[in-house]
């Protein structure tokens, strides 16, 4: 299981956190999702879900992924 952390500069409040967590958690195979409002990051245990689907889910929630943190 791969854990990825994405930079999402548009995160600013609890609504952002809830929207992203809801969209990503709905994907099949996701292990866990943690949104850090202060750091503006989304940490995802991909489980069996493809990475592209996670990025698409964050986009669907209304936020743009700026890149992967730590790469």
How does this model look, in words?
- It is a single chain.
- The chain is an alpha+beta fold and 71 residues long.
- The chain has helices spanning 14-25, 51-60, and strands at 3-7, 32-36, 41-45, 67-68.
- It has a single domain (3-68), classed as Alpha-Beta Plaits (2-Layer Sandwich), CATH 3.30.70.100.
- It is built from two helices and four strands.
- It has a four-stranded antiparallel sheet with strand order 2-3-1-4, covered by helices on one side.
- A hairpin with a 4-residue loop joins strand 2 (32-36) and strand 3.
- It is globular, with a radius of gyration of 11 Å.
- The two termini are 17 Å apart.
Number of helical regions: 2
Termini distance? 17 Å
CATH architecture label name: 2-Layer Sandwich
Radius of gyration over C-alpha positions, nearest whole angstrom? 11 Å
Proportion of strand residues: 15-25%
Topology:
Elements: E1 3-7, H1 14-25, E2 32-36, E3 41-45, H2 51-60, E4 67-68
Condensed summary:
With 71 residues, the protein is an alpha+beta fold. The chain has helices spanning 14-25, 51-60, and strands at 3-7, 32-36, 41-45, 67-68.
What key phrases describe this protein's structure?
24% strand; Alpha-Beta Plaits; alpha+beta; 2 helices; 71 residues
